[in-house]
Amino acid sequence: MENQALIFIPDISGFTKFVTKCEIDHTNHIISILINVILDSNPLELKVSEIEGDAILFYSKGAPPNKEEVIQQSKRMFIDFHTNLKAIERDFFCKCGSCRTASNLTLKFIAHYGVCKEVPIHNSTKLIGSDVILAHRLLKNNVPEREYILLSEKYLKSQQSESIIEEDWVDIKSNIENFENFGEVRTKYIPLSPLRRLIP
């Protein structure tokens, strides 16, 4: 059955370099910690379609959460993610490549709204549809920041108000992408670097 749904993807950047250049046992342990941190920082109780190594595909059918809720969830995930990275730096005495370079990992978020379909596969449910593909395409974009929340035009149009949450760290910027089969896709993004001052 096809439904409208919020598609929300937290993505760990620097993952490929981290995994390919570091010791696999420690790499797996660190990534497992960070993925679990993201999964636990989910006050909106979004469903998980799949864990994709360096990203988690969350979704919520029906009317989407409002912008303030999505931004606040992203903020919580971001702070919890970096707080745990600092704890890893503090508590891991190992000097191997993965333990020394974990702090280079960063986090970004994609929020999109569109039509998708839940397909049962074995014991899980996979989310499919062109809007799921577009949400993944948006991970590869022209945003000149390493860590940010990117809100697609389709998600923003699902909102009753055009206003964005008023907090001193929120600085919303416009962006345009062009993708094969999708054409021009307008987005807005919020840099997350100002939140680093809140990390313990």
Secondary-structure blueprint:
Elements: E1 2-13, H1 15-21, H2 24-40, E2 47-51, E3 56-61, H3 67-91, H4 97-101, E4 106-121, E5 124-128, H5 130-137, E6 148-152, H6 153-157, E7 173-179, E8 183-191
Parallel strand pairs: 4-6
Antiparallel strand pairs: 1-3, 1-4, 2-3, 4-5, 6-8, 7-8
Helix pairs in contact: 2-3
Task: Describe the protein's architecture and organization.
This protein is an alpha+beta fold and 200 residues long. It has one domain (2-198): 2-Layer Sandwich (Alpha-Beta Plaits). It has helices at 15-21, 24-40, 67-91, 97-101, 130-137, 153-157; strands spanning 2-13, 47-51, 56-61, 106-121, 124-128, 148-152, 173-179, 183-191. Strands 1, 2, 3, 4, 5, 6, 7 and 8 form an eight-stranded mixed sheet that branches. α2 packs antiparallel against α3. The longest helix has 25 residues, at 67-91. It starts with a strand and ends in a 9-residue tail after the last strand. The mean pLDDT is 89.
- Alpha carbon gap, first and last residue: 44 Å
CATH class: Alpha Beta
Q: Could you say which overall geometry the principal axes of the C-alpha atoms support?
A: globular
Main β-sheet, in a few words? 8 strands, mixed
Structural class: alpha+beta
Q: Tally of extended strands? A: 8
Helix run count: 6
In CATH, the topology is named Alpha-Beta Plaits
Shape-level CATH architecture: 2-Layer Sandwich
Number of domains: 1
Helix content: 25-40%
* H and E order: EHHEEHHEEHEHEE
Q: Oligomerization state of this entry?
A: single chain
The radius of gyration is 17 Å
Percentage of β-strand residues: 25-35%
Please mark out the parts with pLDDT under 50 across 5 or more consecutive residues, or reply none: none
User: What is the H level of CATH, i.e. the homologous superfamily?
Assistant: Nucleotide cyclase, GGDEF domain
The average pLDDT value, as a whole number, equals: 89
